[in-house]
């Protein structure tokens, strides 16, 4: 393993048992993230990207596969080991309102992880650390006694960021951290997270359904469809050429922000394959305009279609005339 790899995931699977069979939420995912970088994980709602993030940091128990953090196998951890690990691996949630206790003030919410982990020796030290964290995330000190319902979405998400930073983590899973926010506030939170990454050397796994956001924040991009990995490349390469039919469709479905723009937003049509016991076929076959017989009979493997660019499609060469 190279020195600068902070997180490596191998053949990770997370299945949920349902009365109708196993739901394949995360199916055989492989990736690594370098220290100080951001892996963008993108896909439609329900593709398993949030489950992937939660499984990586042990908020869900994995079904199989391996997870390495700083070169150490953390696939199986005891409760005590997990408590130690939690200091280094944190999460920022999509909806700051539902993830914050409405009965706690801003300062109490930020102090909570510090108290649980006994990080401050005195009340004065705790107050200083809370004030520092509020300053770091751009929350004015006058807001310390406010409650979440008295704040706008952007300020509530700043509390979520401060809580995630409280224990000085190395790695943060950011689960759709800006999708519940107004567009104008989204940019402020993304800029804050990028500044913090630079200052503190943080590593992010940034989960989003928004192709324009993922482009802005990511070093590498992993595209997921129904629990499986369909495309992986660095951000520049991915936006230079999308090779998988699903990624092409995902980008075509991005709203056109220019008033009067002639290009139409194309929604992805077709029946979605059930993630419960999916068969031996490409999971995108029922929606793919290029699908042929083989696509319904064989699962495509992820292969390096061009250097550094991995795609799971039987016909990637033909479709893209590579
Ligand atoms: Fe489409 Fe077939 Fe490629 Fe799947 S394997 S993406 S169905 S062409």
In quaternary terms, these chains amount to single chain
CATH class of the largest domain: Alpha Beta
Spans of 5+ residues with little confidence (pLDDT < 50)? 256-261
Radius of gyration: 21 Å
**Overall helicity:** 25-40%
**Structural class category:** alpha/beta
Write up what this structure looks like.
Helices cover 32% and strands 24% of the residues. The chain is built from eleven helices and twelve strands. The chain has two domains: 5-88 and 169-320, P-loop containing nucleotide triphosphate hydrolases (Rossmann fold); 100-168, no CATH class. A hairpin with a 2-residue loop joins strand 4 (64-69) and strand 5 (72-73). Helix 4 (106-116) packs across helix 5 (123-136), helix 4 packs parallel to helix 6 (153-165) and helix 6 (153-165) packs parallel to helix 7 (183-200). The longest helix has 18 residues, at 183-200. The strands form two sheets. It has an eight-stranded mixed β-sheet, sandwiched between helices. Strands 2-1-4-5 form a four-stranded antiparallel β-sheet. 38% of the residues are buried. With 322 residues, the protein is an alpha/beta fold. The protein binds iron/sulfur cluster. Iron/sulfur cluster is lined by residues 245, 282, 284-285, 288, 290-291, 295, 300, 313-315. Residues 245, 282, 284-285, 288, 290-291, 295, 300, 313-315 line the site of iron/sulfur cluster.
List the main descriptive attributes of the protein structure presented here.
globular; alpha/beta; 12 strands; Rossmann fold; 8-stranded mixed beta sheet; 11 helices; 2 domains; 322 residues; binds iron/sulfur cluster; 4-stranded antiparallel beta sheet
């Amino acid at each position: 393993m190279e020195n600068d790899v902070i997180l490596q995931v191998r053949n990770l699977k997370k299945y949920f048992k349902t009365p109708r069979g196993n739901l394949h939420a995360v199916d055989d995912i492989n990736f690594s993230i370098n220290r100080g970088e951001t892996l963008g994980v993108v896909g439609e709602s329900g593709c398993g990207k949030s489950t992937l993030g939660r499984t990586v940091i042990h908020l869900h128990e994995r079904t199989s596969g391996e997870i390495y953090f700083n070169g150490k196998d953390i696939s199986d951890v005891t409760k005590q080991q997990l408590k130690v690990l939690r200091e280094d691996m944190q999460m920022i949630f999509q909806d700051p309102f539902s993830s914050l206790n409405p009965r706690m003030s801003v300062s109490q919410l930020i102090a909570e992880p510090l108290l649980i982990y006994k990080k401050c020796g005195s009340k004065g030290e705790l107050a200083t650390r809370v004030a520092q964290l509020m300053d770091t995330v751009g929350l004015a000190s006058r807001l310390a006694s406010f409650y979440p319902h008295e704040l706008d979405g952007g300020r509530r998400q700043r509390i979520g960021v401060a809580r995630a930073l409280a224990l000085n983590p190395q790695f943060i899973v950011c689960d759709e951290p800006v999708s519940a926010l107004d567009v104008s506030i989204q940019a402020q939170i993304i800029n804050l997270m990028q500044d913090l990454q630079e200052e503190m050397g943080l590593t992010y796994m940034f989960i989003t359904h928004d192709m324009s956001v993922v482009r802005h924040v990511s070093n590498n991009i992993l595209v997921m469809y129904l629990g499986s990995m369909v495309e992986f490349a660095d951000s520049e390469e991915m936006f230079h050429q999308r090779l998988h039919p699903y990624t092409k469709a995902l980008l075509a479905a991005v709203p056109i922000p220019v008033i009067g723009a002639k290009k139409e937003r194309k929604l992805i049509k077709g029946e979605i394959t059930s993630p419960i016991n999916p068969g031996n076929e490409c999971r995108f076959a029922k929606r793919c305009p290029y699908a042929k017989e083989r696509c319904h009979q064989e699962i495509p493997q992820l292969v390096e279609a061009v250097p550094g660019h991995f795609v799971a499609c039987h016909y990637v060469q033909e479709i893209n005339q590579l």
